[in-house]
Amino acid sequence: MKVGALVPAASRLWSTRMKELAERFPSVEVFMGEEATSREFAGIEALVASRLTTLQAEKATSLKALFLPITGINGIPAELLARRGVRVFNVHSNAESVAEKALSMILAWFGRTIDYHNDLKEERWHGFWVGKGNEDEWDSIFDRRVAILGTGAIGSALARLLKAFRCEVVGWRRREGLPVPPGFDRVETDLKAALRGRDIVVAALPLTSDTQNIVDASAFSEMGGAFFVNVGRGATVNEEALWLALRDRVIAGAAIDVWYQYPEPGSTMGAPSRFPIHELPNVVLSPHVGGSTRQASRAAIEATCRNLSDWIERGEASDEVDLRSAY
User: Fold this and answer.
1) What percent of the chain has pLDDT over 70?
2) Residues 230-266: tens digit of each pLDDT
3) Fewer CB within 10 Å: N-end or C-end of the chain?
4) What is the three-state SS of the chain?
5) 38 pLDDT above the threshold of 90
6) Where are the domains of the chain?
7) pLDDT at 324 (0 to 100)
8) What is the pLDDT confidence band of residue 3, given thresholds at 50, 70 and 90?
9) d(CA 207, CA 49)
10) Which residues lie across from 215 on neighbouring strands?
11) Would you say 27 and 14 are in contact if contact means Cβ atoms under 8 Å apart?
12) Which fold has domain 95-285?
């Protein structure tokens, strides 16, 4: 069996785990990096990759299983792979890190951390030290009413964290009849019911045909002044509706880690939206790094290699993706 790994060849952990895989299964040949996309690519049966182009998928004519060291499947030709019967397995190793990032941005907003930090860097003081009154205070998130859109790994991890602040946490998902995950007080299947009366709304949704633009102008109107957070996928939230809701103060503000535009390859510069959202005063900005902790990266490699090893050994692995539903 030939196994390909389109992963950084310079990564010591990837190299170590791939070497261990080859030693454990003598019948397995492992090809990494450019070697994997050489003339051997057509014979590869199992592939590890975060992204796969349509052209690459067409060339990998023997491919039976694709192993993603990430959660999202936006970077692969899902319909093509589904038609060919290729099985896809992902990992949710960064869920706790993304939840932690969401919580940190919520705390930054309510605690006015960015305002206080920026002002004190310029020697401007706040608080009773300079005779400021109630208008200069920050807000606690204890006992807040929170809605989390998406009750998967990220949403569930965040719900558990919010319980430390005695928050009432309502979840939203499309499917009915499933158990309520730990951390949630209840789960709604009606979006408006989940949004109504909330102080904080967090979107932790995958991008599918069902979730694209699901948070629109009417959803923002239903939030009625809440603070909004998106750590799922940018396109689950209507771009223009978000801009208008922030500009017109339909919502109090937003913390955003996932965007609509990204820099060109090789560049580190570029606006994150076609609207000047990043220029508004009522936003906390993050450059899509919610899951980019050292701990999450290592855990993703370990989980992916376990999945690959299990599949080689017994033809099954954890976290198989339903390519038809894109999750």
Assistant:
1) 99
2) 999 999 999 999 999 999 999 999 999 999 999 998 9
3) N
4) CEEEEECCCCCHHHHHHHHHHHHHCCCCEEEEHHHHHCCCHHHCCEEEECCCCHHHHHHCCCCCEEECCCCCCCCCCHHHHHHHCCEEECCCCCHHHHHHHHHHHHHHHHCCHHHHHHHHHCCCCCCHHHCCCHHHCCCCCCCCEEEEECCCHHHHHHHHHHHHHCCEEEEECCCCCCCCCCCCCEEECCHHHHHCCCCEEEECCCCCCCCCCCECHHHHHHHCCCEEEECCCHHHECHHHHHHHHHCCCCCEEEECCCCCCCCCCCCCCCCCCCCHHHCCCEEECCCCCCCCHHHHHHHHHHHHHHHHHHHHHCCCCCECCCCCCC
5) no
6) 2-93+295-314, 95-285
7) 80
8) very high
9) 19
10) 237
11) no
12) Rossmann fold (3.40.50)
pLDDT of residue 8: 79
Q: Residue written as tokens 């965040």?
A: 158
